[in-house]
Design goal:
- With 294 residues, this protein is α/β, with parallel strands linked by helices.
- The chain has a single domain, classed as 3-Layer(aba) Sandwich (Rossmann fold), CATH 3.40.50.720.
- The chain is built from nine helices and seven strands; from the N terminus they run αβαβαβαβαβαβααβα.
- It has a seven-stranded parallel beta sheet, with helices on both faces.
- α2 packs parallel to α3 and α2 crosses α8.
- The longest helix has 29 residues.
- It is globular.
- The termini are far apart.
- The mean pLDDT is 90.
Length: 294
Amino acid sequence: MQESKPIGLHQVLMWIIGNRNELNILKMNENKEMGTAVVTGASSGLGEVFAERLAERGYNLKLVARRKDRLDALAEKLESKYGIKVTNLVADLGSDSELEKVAENLRSDNSITLLINNAGTSTLSSISSTSVAKQKEMVNVNVTALMVLSHAVLPGFIEKNTGILINIASVLGFYTLPISAVYSGTKGFVVQYTQGLQEEVKGTNVQVQLVNPATTATEIWEVGGVPLSALEQSTIMTTEDCVDAILSGLDKGEQVTHPSVHDQKLIDNYEDARIKLFQGSQHGQPAERYITQA
């Protein structure tokens, strides 16, 4: 029997060079099947990790954020590492004109199969010490931008009967602190709006996921005026763990994902109570406790 010769480094390199085009074609076809994922707030925090995880899954990406230098560095890294295509949309989603440019870009892109509305901002302070401009900024980014961009892709998803929309809300969407009246209000909108969209797409193959993270190690705390160092450290989740939990929930087909809630019964009981309270409101007469007794 003829003894096989060891393969040298030169031969390995020549094989890689010879097959690179074929490998690239295979990767391009895979990306075409996955389509394009859009991530807002992609220059840091959850958005940056989402971009990495989705690139790893084979999506081409459209990344939206204000900071061009960070987006460019991230795009270069992901294209080199995963062989995908990344398009950066540099925009301030709090600006009506810039938001509309992004929305028009998404409306005209038939390759989009997934949108993550992750961009958000906060000012954690009492109403009396928060300027109207800061309050409007939270509404513009957390509410208006999310609504406009959801509307930019959802009709196409419904028409094609496929697509994924992920809206990042917060546990402060159903709980309010003395310093979070506006922020909690905006996230409360995201909760109700997203649940309404879920009702709209029932019976289709379009998936709409509502996500309620708790304390996560992102820049939003510093922006909001409460440093992470001031919080109970055991309650802070890393961005990587949070994103991985969200995507796991997506893969499981969850409509509502609470990344840090360990007791599923709490989630089930809250949902049950919410529905029963609504059902209990369906009466045309005032409750007895409001009727004055003669």
